[in-house]
User: What shape does this take?
Amino acid sequence: MLERDDDFDRRIRNWLQPDQHTVERLATRVLSAHPRTRRNGRLFALSAVAGLLMATAGVWLWHSTPADVDEYTASFDGDVLLIRAADGTTSILGPPGGDPPPAGTAQIVFEGEPR
Assistant: This one.
């Protein structure tokens, strides 16, 4: 039975041992690679990583930046204009009362606290 195991071990070792000619050919090819080829590969890999990082940062900034503009909704209820702000406050603008202002003038009314 020992002879069978020895034969099996020998076959496995022969099967796993690389061919010397193949090893020499591979080593020669790797060591003689042109430096420009290696540099181009590194440049491509670096460019791919930089592009991926920039895309990730852009998506993160796009999703993490809140809107700069407050949202307002306006609707008419007859002659009255209702303006609702995002913070829940409502402004009511009604039709002008009394005499209208002279032509070429305007009235601007702002109620509330300045920001």
